[in-house]
Structure formats: C-alpha cells, structure tokens
Amino acid sequence: MSEMSHWTPLKGVKIVDFSMLLPGPLTTLILGDLGAEIIKVEPPGGDYARHMKSHMFEGANRGKRSIVIDMKSPQAASVVEKLAAYGDVAIEGFRPGVASRLGFGPQQLQAVNPGLVYCSLSGFGQTGPAATKAGHDLAYLAMGGSLAYRGQLRQPPSRASLPIADIAGGAFAAVSILAALREGKGTTLDLSLYEAVLYTSALRFGFDTTADSVDHLYPANDLFTCSDGRLIALTVVEEKFWNNLVHVLKEIAPALSGEEFATEAGRLRNHLSLMDILDRAFASRPAKDWIALFDPADVPAAICVTNSEAIQSSHAQARALHRHTEYGPILPFPVIANGLRVPNHSRAPEISSGADDILSKIGFNQTEVETLVRIGAVQKPEHHNDPVAV
Asked: Are the C-beta atoms of 196 and 145 separated by less than 8 Å?
C-alpha cells in the first residue's frame, strides 16, 4: 500500500511524550497511529516498561522516536525548552508536582509555547486528598468501583487480564487532546485514571450500594467449558437470541424450554439451575462443533482464543489485521476510514536511538549535541544506565 493510500489525519502534529508504562504511551500510540509525530523522552535507563516481562513496551511504543534526557542535569532545560517550542502537545504521567520539579511542568513549557496542549495523566488527578497516593491499574479499578461487582454469576469479583484503567485513561486522554487541538489554543488537561474507571463503571452499575447485586448479569452471557477443555463465550442477552439458543439445544437440553426460563426475570431467578443445564450441554461436544451449530442459527458465541490464534483466523486475514515483520506481527489501528487504514509503523525504538535526529530537528548543531552528550544532559544509545526511580 502506498503512502498516499494511508489515512493519516494527524500528520504534522508533533507530540512530546514524557510518560512511561502504559497509560500515556497508549495515548500517544493512538495519536501516532493517526499520523502524529511522537518524540518519546526517557530518563536514564529508559521507560520502566522496557524492563518488564511483557509485550507492553513494544506494543505501546512502536513508531516513536526515543531520546534520553537526564532531567537532573542543569543543561537539560535547554533541550526541554526547544522540545516545548517544537511540539504541539506534551504529555506526562507522573504524580502531581514531579514534572514541574524536573523542569517540564505545564507552566514551564507553556511559558515557552503558549499554544501548547499539555496533558497530565495521573492516577488520581492533580488535586484532592488522594492526588499523590501511589497506585497502579488494579488500585484505580478498586477505588473507582469496578471491582466491587461480579462479572460472572457464579464467581466473586475478579480482576481482568487487561489493565482496564490504563486503557480507559489513555483513550480519554487521546480524545481530550484531539478536542484541545481542535479548539486551537493552549490548554492544560488533568486526567485521572481513577475517574476514567468511575465514569465507565457508573455507566454499567449506576450507584447501586448493593455490591453483590446480580441484576446486571445474564445467565446465558458467560463462559462455559466444552468437552475438549476449551472455553466458549456465550453472549445471549436479547430475547431473540435466547429463543435461537433454545431452538438449537431443543434435543440436547430440552429443559431450557421450561416455563421457569421463559422470561429474563425467570432466567435470573433460576440462574443456578439454568447454568447447570448449560454446563452439561457444553461438556458434551468440542468447542468448534458448538460454533458450527451456533453461527448458522444466529446464536452469539465465540471460542476463547489467544492473540496468536486470533490473528490467524480467516476473519483476521480477510480484514488484513496484521503484517509479519522480523520482530513479530504488527496490528493496525482498528479503524478503516473511507476504505483506508493507517500505516503499520516500525517497531518500538531502541533507547535514545533518535537522539541525533531529534536534537537536530529542534535546533541544535552538531557541536552543541556533542556538548550535551559529554556533560550527560542527553545520552546516546551506548551511554544509558539502569533505571532509577523518580
């Protein structure tokens, strides 16, 4: 696919990303996928995510350019000022006060560039008694109400395999940055992962004080184990899908047509017996056989697969959902605009691999670059240390 055939609506937007781990990098991944230029500023030793045993760093930082700046060096200020002047957006993900203490807070950067959109993405926001409280995704889910409610009728509340707070906060930040850019003036954004959780949790649960309520759950909207040990996600919610399910299972599980299951209220009231019936039914056949029965009958269900299995599916292939590279598959931005996808970016950058290019682009000559490296304000790829806490 040629460059002209890609959808890059944010081409020309320049973003300076001081954030680490997932929320902020996810924000800039989204914006970078849409065409923005992302300069990833890292401390000596790099983003903490570089040293974690997961795919997170590679996945959230592809297509970006990296530069290591030692913010504790007095000469770092000149680099930060030129980055602020160059950028349209700056984003950081530290606890309140840390960015300002290190020289890249909103007042400092907007003094250089009054039109800069500055986004602070923190756990609990810039104000309030919990503002400086330590936390990660699970804590924000807990304090935001999400973990008090059950996701399955027969299971206690449990954590998801995905960092939902980080993902929600990163997405809200991306939308807010786009809104601020549309407004066209300098803006300071204060986003809280905790509030992102509460906002989305309240959409589902309202403000019910009964944490053990099951009113939001559906017995036929759950996971069931098949005879081959694989899990199927049955997602029967609407009445029409229930009727389709009963029809498909009329010989395998005739009890489903009983009067006690005829209404949604009855199914919830008798959910234990209903789910026992479904357990026995699903245990009688392998997962693929169930899908072969359900798909033609318009019963919504899917086999639980790994990401690797997912991208090998015929549907993923038809949608051109990935391309293979020497470092593994790359997935595109999950939107097609007027038939066009965003370009597939290169892999995540090696630490400070973009230093020379970035410094040149923001106005430093070669002699100045060499001086910055010699005094330790900026580090080249071969001159980085182990990560240190900020």
From this structure: no
Instruction: Tell me phi and psi for residue 382, to 5 degrees.
Output: -85, 0
Q: How many H helices and E strands in the chain?
A: 16, 12
59/332 Cα distance (integer angstroms): 11
CATH class of 3-206+323-383: alpha beta
User: Which secondary-structure segment (H or E) carries 205?
Assistant: helix 193-205
Q: Where are the alpha helices (DSSP H) in 22-163?
A: 23-33, 56-60, 76-86, 98-102, 106-112, 137-143
**Domain definitions of the chain by residue range:** 3-206+323-383, 231-303
Structure tokens at 38: 């992302």
CA 63 to CA 101: how far, in whole Å? 29
What angle, 0 to 180 degrees and rounded to 10, lies between the N-to-C axes of helices 193-205 and 164-183? 110
Q: What's the whole-model pTM score? A: 0.92
- How far is it, in rounded angstroms, from Cα 349 to Cα 63? 7
Query: φ, ψ for residue 330 (rounded to 5)?
Result: -115, 130
The residue written with tokens 């400086």 in the block is 132
The span from the CA of 17 to the CA of 174, in Å, is 12
Helix (H) / strand (E) element for 323: namely strand 323-325
Query: Which residue in this structure is represented by tokens 């984003």?
Result: 91
d(CA 333, CA 318): 16
Report the alpha-carbon distance of residue 119 to residue 105 in Å, rounded.
10
CB 349 within 8 A of CB 65: yes
Which residues have C-beta within 8 Å of that of residue 268, sequence separation ≥ 6?
A: 214, 215, 217, 218, 219
CB-facing half-sphere around the CA of 117: CA atoms within 13 A = 20
Residue 273, CA atoms < 13 Å, CB-side half-sphere = 11
Cα–Cα distance, 193 to 335 (Å, whole number): 24
Say how far apart CA 138 and CA 160 lie, in whole Å: 9
Which pLDDT tens digit goes with each residue over 15-51?
Answer: 999 999 999 999 999 999 999 999 999 999 999 999 9
pLDDT tens readout for residues 237-246: 999 999 999 9
Tokens of 40: 């990833």
How many residues in the chain? 390
Query: Residue type for 21, please?
Result: L
Of 143, 144, 94, which is closest to residue 121 (Cα–Cα)?
A: 94
Coil, helix or strand at residue 257? helix
Check the CA dihedral 127-132-133-137 and report its sign: positive
